[in-house]
TrEMBL record:
Protein name per the record: DUF6533 domain-containing protein
Domain of life according to the entry: Eukaryota
Protein species of origin: Suillus discolor
UniProt keyword list: Membrane, Transmembrane, Transmembrane helix
DUF6533 domain mapped to chain residues: 11-56
Pfam families: DUF6533
């Protein structure tokens, strides 16, 4: 079972690398147009981190999958670093949509404080669980010739809790977006507003479904499969967040009718237009 899981994990990582490369190649022109023509803001910095951090993650995962490594300790250290990058990637992806929700609610500071407080609480508890879990995790390498890499031979039962928090947080943001969309649908029919709401709902739905999948994966599947599905969720959400941001920026540059969601200049970060 363990050698089979190593092979399956390698196939998944190769598929992720292929998909990420294909996505980047397809959006290369738009990508560099955005990087060269858009103003330097904190959101742009967030975009760069979210867009290019998967490259480092995938390189590390493929290195662990294809490099012979008879030292479980070294392999475990690389896996922990990759997992840390994955958590950072998830936080960066969520930041885009926290800002978007804040913008949809006309910079409501009470709402922002509530959302950030929830996010911070969930993040601290999740990090505590993850750190405790990494202490309990043990790694093993395959003894079968031709099958490389290492896998979790044991882990903590409580690793499903961070993804349960992720489900709750995505539901919270989805409900806030739906409430605002229902309130403003007739009074703010701009094309940019519609795209923003559609992006938010689509992202939250994907994040929720992936998190539910990882909850059941953590509870039902073998240890060796866990990290593969964790990284898959982080990677897909990062691609969605950056692609949606790029689309929103392009729409703002070529508006269809009124593109103003708030009477605040694009240069101001907390405004709706500053999310692009």
């Amino acid at each position: 079972m363990m050698p089979r899981s190593l092979q399956f994990t390698t196939y998944i990582y190769m598929s992720m690398a292929t998909f990420w490369t294909y996505d980047y190649a397809c959006s290369l022109h738009e990508e560099w147009s955005f990087l060269l023509r858009s103003h330097w803001t904190k959101v742009k910095g967030l975009y760069i981190v979210t867009r290019y951090l998967p490259f480092i993650m995938l390189a590390m995962n493929l290195c662990m999958s294809f490099t012979p490594n008879e030292n479980p300790g070294k392999c475990g250290a690389l896996d922990r670093i990759s997992s840390g990058f994955g958590m950072l990637l998830a936080v960066c992806s969520e930041c885009f949509f926290i800002l978007r929700t804040y913008a949809l609610w006309n910079k409501n500071r009470i709402l922002l404080i509530a959302v950030l407080s929830t996010c911070f609480t969930f993040l601290v508890v999740s990090l505590s669980i993850a750190v405790d879990a990494t202490v309990a995790v043990t790694y093993a390498t395959s003894a079968i010739p031709g099958i490389m890499g290492c896998y979790w031979s044991s882990t903590s039962y409580w690793l499903f809790i961070p993804f349960l928090f992720f489900c709750i947080f995505e539901l919270e943001l989805m409900i806030l977006t739906l409430i605002r969309a229902i309130q403003n649908w007739r009074t703010n029919p701009s094309h940019l507003y519609v795209i923003l709401v559609n992006h938010n709902i689509s992202y939250y739905a994907c994040g929720f479904l992936f998190s539910v999948t990882n909850v059941f994966t953590s509870l039902l599947l073998k240890y060796s499969y866990h990290t593969m599905f964790y990284n898959f969720q982080f990677m897909i959400l990062a691609i969605l967040a950056t692609r949606m941001h790029l689309h929103l920026w392009q729409t703002d540059r070529h508006p269809h009718g009124s593109s103003t969601l708030a009477s605040i200049p694009m240069s101001e970060m907390p405004s709706v237009n500053s999310t692009v």
